[in-house]
Design brief:
single chain; 481 residues; Rossmann fold; 3 domains; 20 helices; 46% helix; binds adenosine-5'-triphosphate; binds magnesium ion; ATP binding; nucleotide-binding; transcription regulation; DNA-binding
Length: 481
Amino acid sequence: MTNLLIVDDEKEIGHFLSHLFTAKGYNVKVVNSGKEFFSINLSLQKFHAAMIDLKLPDTDGLTLLQQIKKKQPRCKTIIMTGYSTIKTAVEAIKFGACDYIEKPFDDIDLLEKQIDDLLEDKDTNADEHIKHLANEVGLITGKNETMGKLLHTAYKVAQKNITVLIEGETGTGKEVLSRFIHHASPRSHESFIGVNCGAISEPLLESELFGHERGAFTGATQQRKGLFEIASKGTLFLDEIGEASRSIQVKLLRVLEAREFMPVGSEKILRTNTRLIAATNKHLFEAVQKKKFREDLYYRLNVVHLKVPPLRERKEDIPLLIDHILHRFPGIDISFSEDALRAILSYNWPGNVRELSNFITSIVALSDPTQNVITADDLMFSNLTSVPTPVKPQPHTITANGEHHLEHYLQNWTNHILSVFNGKEEIHLEKLLEEIKQLESKVGKAFIMKTLKEAGGNRNEAARRLKITIRKLRYLLNEKR
Ligand SMILES: Nc1ncnc2c1ncn2[C@@H]1O[C@H](COP(=O)(O)OP(=O)(O)OP(=O)(O)O)[C@@H](O)[C@H]1O
Ligand SMILES: [Mg+2]
């Protein structure tokens, strides 16, 4: 027999739930206060599941949740909450509640399903499901406990249409996390649209978000739909929300409060059902304290707060992430020696997963194709910039060994450049062009070495065949990298 505990001070709710679940064959116990709850001997009476109201006259649901989790860790708990306390309900999930449901219950079937799923242990399989969904959006779930809990919470809140604020340093994976939330949500078949609030000017951002009427401003030759309309059934990802101007902040507040907005130059009021996920790599609350960000908007956005830990606090995930990154290069068989891995693990990765990804990509692009194992000597972490670069000179890479290596080298280069070009990572063009200069010099050298070989080592002859001066030949051969 399944034992279900219901804690709610509203007697009618207790009766209703008791009726509903007794009819399903459960053994239901209802209590109406904290006092009654504490009179139960939890060591003797075991519950398979508990539904706990968050607001009780003499205590709060979170205290009861912790108590029951302590005494009966296997008991599945669900928090019941009114809309105004959703934030606390999300906290409850962080404390180990399996889920929360909103009162009043307007979908009884859903309510029954939630309890049935819980009791059928579907929740225990959640980890596998989370991993699977995360993989589908390219998010690697490592071994780190904080990350694990974060994904669990993200997965839970994904099911409901509530606003999420993701904070985390640059490159920690805020965008992939928001894609995961969308993918795990009932909206996954609708569109996921991202917009970077820091990357475009205010008027442009306004028209991007809310749309505009024809003739609303110079250049507005046609009417245009805004993202709040386009993504009305889907998810809108507002990246770098901290960069949104005051006037955009006011408009966002209105959308969040009333779910409505007006396109630029229009008097029409449009409604939207977009699910909003905002991200920032700043401490948004500090911006609130400095009066740079509206406090009311902050609280509206911050219904669910997810903080992605920096990579240096989850280094145990680095080997898995490296594997994942290497998988992007089919046919490349590279591994890291123990000392190389140690060096990688001792580095602090201020640019987080993105930096790691760029780093591995450049190793792949620049490594000697005959060398399958990268050693610590092959790595050099620059302490001047935050971007570590593999810089071990490999003079023999293409020079002595002929076309085969040149071909491989150029292929690696093409892959590297194309992956930067097509990737979503920040591009350091200066750095890329600098690397291309090295490529130029390597290719030049490869031609000279080949011709020198064919000319029996005669420099004058090689220069003649290559139509360059002997000075240029010497220059190219001796050029420092
Ligand atoms: N857990 C992860 N598994 C696999 N790849 C990841 C993970 N986290 C981040 N990445 C990769 O790292 C790069 C940066 O991630 P993302 O763009 O989501 O970071 P971000 O936090 O949004 O950065 P920024 O603040 O600079 O916008 C991407 O290429 C992403 O695919
Ligand atoms: Mg981002």
